[in-house]
Amino acid sequence: MKMNLKKWLVLSSLPVLFGVASCSNSGGSAGKSSVTGWEYNNTKNGGFEVRPYSGQVTGPGLVLIQGGTFVMGNTETDVLYDYHSVPRRTTVSSFYMDETEVANVHYREYVYWLFRVFGTDFPEVVKKALPDTLVWRDELAYNEPYVEYYFRHPSYNYYPVVGVNWLQANDFAAWRSDRVNERILIDRGVLAENPSQIGNDNFNTESYLQGQYEGAAGKRPMKDLNPAGSGTRKVQMEDGIMLPSYRLPTEAEWEYAAIAAIGNQPANGEERVTDRRIYPWNGTSTRYPKVGNWQGEFLANFKRGRGDNMGIAGKLNDNADITAPVKSFIPNDYGLFNMAGNVSEWVMDVYRPMTSTDMNDFRSYRGNQFKTKVTDADGKPVEKDSLGKISYRMVTKEESQNRRNYRDGEVRNYIDGDEVSNVDYKFATSSLVNDDARVYKGGSWKDRAYFIAPGSRRYLDQALSTDDIGFRCTMDRLGSPAGNEFKGGNHYKETGARKYRGK
Prior knowledge:
Helix content is about 15%, strand content about 10%.
């Protein structure tokens, strides 16, 4: 659930469009520790700060997806006999998700920032981020106008970006995280706007938190209550001001959000777990079912059949020959657009055919690569790199040998051992299924209806891109899974030992 914007602006007393609701920079209201009795936020008591916190505010472009349990992997019929969408029940934690796919204009904003900051000294950074517009080229079709215009022309500003591989999508999410957090600090007065950032002198959330980025000081710095401090300080994680990172969704998160079974729950609060959906909407049809002007119209942008991408003149069935604007068609019950059709979407997971047989039933995900900061002899992070980022390295087997919950940093090939990345298909041996094979979901403008079911899954090498795969971002929900208006756990009015003793 989104926090009411007007309510938050009153609490913050700042013209902030997004950020975290908390008290002013004065240190917040007084309170006492329930375990020591010492007063918080008091310089005379040592200055330990506990800042009042009203909950995580929804970041730009996101909607709250309340988590829960669902059956993952459902499709109509396994017509392709892939046997890799075996249904199993799993639980997804609450998270935030983009209401639409990332559009061309959003990605151009990203490329422009890279050019402005790194274009002079590190042009390869800009080149690495550019989408591959040649994905539109076809030997037996005239698609050259899309090669030239789709990404750049304003006619397609709010069409989903394509030609972006999995690696590029992750880089975009990381960049977006830093720009959102920088904007939060600027709007709070902690930092001042600095459009002259060049090279490694650019805002990076990790670098800032590690004290390796100063930036231009704002007019309202954080007050330091430490009696031995300088009087002012940087924002810390404990302040709850900056947002968690944007990232790609896991396969489980994406499928759960697409199904949107929250719309099937009765108003009386009963728990209904038997209903399932084939598509992001109820029913078995891909057409609008209700009587009215829209009855019979397609509910998603997909290919009806061979040679039929949009219907006949005067009666275009989805009004889209290729992709459609990101806010086309009816959003699902979470308010998400185009979770079926338009473009398929990258997810975080490494592909394995039998994912369901070895994955955790809570926050299911395959693809972990556990990392830790590169530190110096004193245990402090080494100097940020030439792009302004904190350096990380893989966790080694030696470092994790005494752990019970993990034994290595590289676990993408957990259990299967990656078997030299080869799969025997009777007629040939394929090397496509390996640790670089990433799952994509949702079906696209060039797919038949079978692939727009959320349970369907396909894969592609993380360094490749196509004209029908895009992406959207997610963000972790911190705190109560039901939203800021609700506490975590159940809280009963009748409390106290007497009640439990039957008195």
